[in-house]
Predict the structure of Transposase.
Amino acid sequence: MFSEKKTNTKKRFSEQQIIGFLKEAEAGMPVKELCRKHGFSDASFYTWRAKFAGMEVSDAPRLKDLESENARLKKLPAEAVLGMEALKVVVKGKP
């Protein structure tokens, strides 16, 4: 009557680990076996392969830096628009 309980906890892997997994697959380890061994889905593997293909472990920190810089730059236009809207409110309020 005992049933095996599945957990839905997500395991997070660093970029360096992911690149290592991809290198294992490139070296010939079957994807299903690799996924089972490290505890992630084949869908995750293929998503990672699309994102990190051809990268070396030393490239991972640079990718992370570029992603943060990209996110910061995307926020700039929105902040500028908010600033302009605030100025319009102030200008309209003056007699």
Summary: The radius of gyration is 23 Å. The mean pLDDT is 85. The helical segments are 15-26, 31-38, 42-52, 60-93.
